[in-house]
Structure prediction request, 382 residues.
Amino acid sequence: MTDAPHFSIDPAAFAADPYPALARMRREAPIAFVPELGATLLTRRDDIHRQEKRIEVFSSHQPDGLMSVLMGENMMRKDGDAHQAERRALFPALSPRTVAQHWRSVFEAAANDILDDLAPLGACDLVTDYAMPVSAAALIAITGLSGMTRAEMDRVSQHMIDGCANYLGDPEVEARCHAATALIDSHIDRSFDMPPPKSALAVQRAAGLPMQSLRANIKLVISGGQNEPRDAIAGIAWALLTHPDQLALIRRGENTWQDAFAEYARWISPIGMSPRIVARADSVGGVRFDPGDRVFLMFSSAGRDEAHFDRPDAFDVTRDTGAAIPFGAGPHFCAGAAAARCLIAEVALPLLFDRLPGLRLDGPVPFKGWAFRGPTSMPVAW
Prediction:
């Protein structure tokens, strides 16, 4: 058991807004055991950046972890050669070249179709009526699960990530997660013999991955490829609508949609943390870690580390975000980063603000979550 100082949180308050508690941890106990989460949190950027790469100590291999138990042992829960082999098998579906040459046009067609339906309405919930279906359409294409509806894709992704963040052990959350994974397996079975070209299903099948690995990696792509782009699309739109001066910078070409995406991912990281398990005894910053200790690398806290970012709680698209690590920094760097940047910054956001002139907020925008964070609703009008 680690000898890290204890730092207690109110789980409800942490889910509502984790940033005040994380700021206190960075100041008072940057490596702290949080009993309510049963894990030791690393909250400073440099500690996370350095220790994430030390897979011999902070291992992703967690056969008893929530993700492995609920979704199967995917490549994110493997290290070394095993991880790299499955990453190479999946890469042809997610490479920057495939995204640019194959998926971008798919993303644009789906976004324009959705906006065709929305434009005459004059108002909508941007989360459920735009960000969700745009992300789901992209993910249906990338996974190759062409029989799945957009609503199904959003639901199974949410229920899986809820399950993976179910550190309080809610049985209803676990049951919904099991139902979601069963539905995904049924769609994999339906599409397996003739998967769409370039899809994650097709490239893994062609690489000859074992069926259990293929299934687990499809679930991984869904868990990270639906809710996070959905939350980022809606969240960045909210950030720009509440900072009209910065939206004006983008409209004038002084800054870019990619700048807005990078700054938002630093400021309100859609993926707030990544779990690790201690594989062998070690110490970091004077704190002892023992085998079996659970560790959370808090990417959300790294993005607001005062040692690297001036006014870290402010949204500023002119900021140099080079030190931020919202996609990770080690061998587990997000495999879908190129697809996410394309979908969000090259397609969904520019089309949204182009096709819905006069877009404005039309009500409060609540946020929730700490392991995964985003707006739960966003009423807008135009």
